Amino acid sequence: MKRAIYIVSLLLCIACTRQEPLHFTHEVLNRMTPIKDQGDSQTCWIYAMLAAIETEHLAWGDSVNLSPYYIERMMEQEADAPENKRGMGITLISLIHKYGIVGYDAMRNIERTPPIWVFMLGATYTPQEFARSVCAPDEYIALTSNSDEPYFQSVDIDLPDNWLHHRFYNIPMDTLLAKTERAVRQHHGICWESKKHAMAIVGIAHDDAGRKYFVMKNSWGADGPYKGLDYLSFEDFRDQTLAIEMTKAAYL
Q1: pLDDT one-digit tens code per residue, 51-96
Q2: CA-CA distance, 184 to 172, in Å (whole number)?
Q3: What mean pLDDT comes out for the span 205-217?
Q4: Which letter does DSSP use for residue 115 in this model?
Q5: DSSP per-residue letters across 9-47
Q6: For the chain, does the N or the C end have fewer beta carbons within 10 angstroms?
Q7: Extended beta strands in 145-210, E state
């Protein structure tokens, strides 16, 4: 989850291989809010899930840009929250429903006092009221693929990041990949998670050899060869995916 480890590994890889960045052709690139930077925190899951929600709203023609720092501060009220502030996309959904959410401009850093009001289009809301317009109860479904557990049932992901003990709907990897690709092509926002990192899926691309990739919105700033985006091959999706969060409408 830490960006510094990734950067060191990436630099070593580039130094050894001296390869130029791959060229990608976008088949689908969904709308997204500006790239953010999680710094040295381990809160990529917050950024990824909020980015997925933002892309979902942009597809509806409704622009929202949400504050990850508000969720970080609300975690301080959770007795079971780990000190490293790790979690999962579905954790974010639960925290939004409990504590609400505010816009990015209302809380642009962790030092700011969390606002108690949200001002939007001439109206005033509490963060909880605003959250209900951003993410309805039971709007999102959490998915996984674990061949050691029965398919088409809800299963546990027994990892410290799942400290709220959410259950995930377990489906075959072929199905998970197909559902995710279809949802992205239909312009839905998707949160993708491995055991080490989380990003939002915002598009589909292929390289010059025809190999297919998901276009990922990362949370390590807008530097790098792809200006804050990353590319996850379909093969790596199969190997690395721990969980996916999408709306139930996207899944059906």
Answers
A1: 999 999 999 999 899 999 999 999 999 999 999 999 999 999 999 9
A2: 18
A3: 97
A4: P
A5: HHHHHHHHH-PPPPPEEEEEE---PPP-B-TT-S-HHHH
A6: C
A7: 153-156, 167-170, 190-193, 198-207
